[in-house]
Structure formats: structure tokens, C-alpha cells
């Protein structure tokens, strides 16, 4: 499976996660949020009719492309989500569960080793630990790269109480990348005619900013084409590891029943910013997080859902608000027990 990638450089960024305070920011940006950002920019530039035409193949289960989430990178060294592990591993000397739990991302070479059946426990001792153990890289990949890829800071803000008009201080978390560091995303292009449009919209999203607090200057970045990467396609009788958030269709729920599956769920909420209507809260949905190990499904798999609010049985907006749970995934071979 040959994938096209794009690299994002700039910032700072603020990526909020439901259930966490504004002082906390994530170090990645999920695929459904990235897709929504594309739609938002298209609506702002070309209007509602362009959205209807753009979304038609997605709605009809013939997605012209599938995006991964935005993951960290150091130059051309790309990091992938760690596949979720099931149960307790047999640990080796000088390795703790705390050490393994801290690891969130693997370099491309280590990721390929893990998805082909090697155990992270065997890889961990000789791997280069970056970002305080959040990132792991192969020693040959990690030459001349910084051990601290990003730093987090807090920006002060002041708001006024609506009743008393007293000022109140609060902080938002921000993530700053080191030089030549940032994010990357991949796309499985299934319809070549969509590639120019996708490239154009990704650049527009970079100009407008991604994540929260864009009105205060956060999130702006330069977007350029990256390298091509090749990942093994999921086999029909095997397992897959997801590279984005996943929302299965009802007929796809058997993916959770395959032996060896392991996954985490996220509750997704947030606000709708529409050029035609006042801001409103999206309906809350639950999605499977990146790095989930699931039973393989035919591509494209996953569902689209309209998350506009409903009041007294009626939609709160005149147009759909799409959340894209169609997922990009790679084949995965589980490590042998005790390996």
C-alpha cells in the first residue's frame, strides 16, 4: 500500500482533548478533525455547493482518499502510533510497565518491526528514547536529531465574568516544535483526480491554522509534500492497526471479535463553527483511537456520521456536519507470547 505524505511545519499549536483542561495539549491531531478542517476551509472558500459535490463519493462509500492522523516527525523521520497491547507483557530486566506505557510513537523502522511480529519489549532496550521516552527510534534513524522534539508551554488569557465583569485569568497549553520538526500525515489516494484538490485544501488548512485558538495566532503552518511510504495492506483473515480514528459501521462491528484485538475508545465532542449559523455544540460520539489492533476489514472501512445538534427532533443546522470515521490501516502480526 503506497501512501503519499505531507509535512506540516510551524505553530505553536493547541490540540484539545475532551475531558482534559485547556492547559493540556495533545502532540498529535486526529484524522477526523483534520478531515473536518478540510471541509471547513472548502466551505469558506467555495460555499455549500462545493461541499455537496466533494462529499458525494464519501457518503456513497467510495471514498476517493483516506487520511491518517497528524503524527510527530523530525525532518523526514516519521513516527507512528504504538499498536495497543492486550494484557501484560513478560518484561525483561531493567524494563518496567511504566517505561512501556510512556511510549506513544515509534519511528518508521521500529513500527515496521512491531507490525511484523516483534515485541516492543525486545526492541525497547536498544531503541533511542526521545521526548522523555514518548518517542522511540532506531539508532541508525536517530543520528543527529534532537532528543527534545517539542516543548509545551502555557499562554495566559484574561476573560470577563458575564455578571460581575470581573477579570479572570486562565491558561491554554501550547506545543512548540524544534527546528525542522512538526507533523506528517499520509493519504491512501483511491481516486487520482482528487489529489490536486486534497493538496490545495491541506495548504489552505495550513494557512488558516489547525487546532484550537486559531484566532489568537495558533496553528498556522507550512504544508509541503513529503516522502512516499509503503505499508503492508491488511489481509482478510488477519489483524490491522489503525493510523487514524475509526468509527465502524454496524456491519463492521465483528472487527472487535477477532482474537488479539486491543483498542481504546474516545468520546468526541466540541463545537461547530459554521459560516451560516451561530456556533453550536456537536453531538457527542465515541470513536476508536489511533493504534487500535482490530480484525481486518475491506477498505474503505468506517462510517461517516452527521453530528449536527438535534433539538426537539429537528436538526439545529440546515446543512450536515460530517465526522469522518473512515480509517487508514496497516496489516499487523501480533508478537508471540513471551517473546
From TrEMBL:
Membrane spanning stretches = none
Q: Per the UniProt entry, what species is this protein from, by scientific name? A: Leptolinea tardivitalis
Keyword match RNA-binding = yes
Q: Which GO terms describe its molecular function?
A: RNA binding
**In the UniProt record, does the keyword Transport occur?**
no
Q: Provide this UniProt record's keywords sorted from A to Z.
A: Antiviral defense, RNA-binding
Q: Which GO terms describe its biological process?
A: defense response to virus
Q: Which family does it belong to?
A: Belongs to the CRISPR-associated Csm4 family.
User: In this protein, which residues make up the domain named Csm4 C-terminal?
Assistant: 240-327
The protein's name is CRISPR system Cms protein Csm4
InterPro entries, sorted:
Csm4, Csm4_C
Amino acid at each position: 500500500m503506497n501512501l503519499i505524505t505531507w509535512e506540516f511545519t510551524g505553530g505553536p499549536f493547541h490540540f484539545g482533548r475532551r475531558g482534559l483542561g485547556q492547559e493540556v495539549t495533545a502532540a498529535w491531531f486526529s484524522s477526523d478533525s483534520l478531515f473536518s478542517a478540510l471541509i471547513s476551509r472548502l466551505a469558506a472558500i467555495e460555499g455549500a455547493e462545493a461541499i455537496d459535490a466533494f462529499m458525494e463519493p464519501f457518503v456513497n462509500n467510495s471514498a476517493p482518499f483516506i487520511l491518517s492522523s497528524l503524527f510527530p516527525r523530525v525532518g523526514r523521520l516519521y513516527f507512528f502510533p504504538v499498536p495497543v497491547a492486550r494484557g501484560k507483557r513478560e518484561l525483561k530486566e531493567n524494563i518496567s510497565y511504566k517505561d512501556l506505557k510512556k511510549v506513544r510513537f515509534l519511528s518508521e523502522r521500529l513500527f515496521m518491526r512491531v507490525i511484523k511480529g516483534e515485541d516492543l519489549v525486545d526492541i525497547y532496550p536498544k531503541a533511542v528514547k526521545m521526548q522523555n521516552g514518548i518517542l522511540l527510534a532506531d539508532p541508525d534513524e536517530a543520528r543527529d536529531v534532537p532528543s527534545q522534539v517539542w516543548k509545551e508551554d502555557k499562554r495566559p488569557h484574561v476573560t470577563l465574568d458575564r455578571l460581575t465583569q470581573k477579570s479572570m485569568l486562565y491558561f491554554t497549553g501550547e506545543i512548540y516544535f524544534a527546528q525542522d520538526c512538526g507533523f506528517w500525515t499520509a493519504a491512501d489516494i483511491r481516486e487520482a483526480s482528487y489529489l490536486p484538490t486534497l493538496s490545495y485544501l491541506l495548504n489552505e488548512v495550513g494557512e488558516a491554522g489547525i487546532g484550537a485558538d486559531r484566532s489568537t495566532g495558533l496553528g498556522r503552518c507550512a504544508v509541503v509534500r513529503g516522502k512516499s511510504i509503503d505499508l503492508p495492506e491488511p489481509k482478510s483473515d488477519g489483524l490491522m492497526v489503525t493510523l487514524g480514528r475509526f468509527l465502524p459501521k454496524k456491519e463492521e462491528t465483528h472487527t472487535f471479535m477477532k482474537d488479539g484485538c486491543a483498542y481504546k475508545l474516545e468520546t468526541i465532542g466540541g463545537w461547530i463553527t459554521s459560516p451560516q449559523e451561530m456556533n453550536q455544540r456537536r453531538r457527542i460520539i465515541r470513536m476508536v483511537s489511533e493504534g487500535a489492533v482490530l480484525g481486518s476489514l475491506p477498505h474503505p472501512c468506517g462510517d461517516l456520521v452527521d453530528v449536527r445538534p438535534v433539538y426537539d427532533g429537528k436538526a439545529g443546522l440546515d446543512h450536515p456536519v460530517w465526522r469522518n470515521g473512515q480509517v487508514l490501516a496497516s496489516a499487523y502480526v501480533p508478537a508471540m507470547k513471551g517473546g
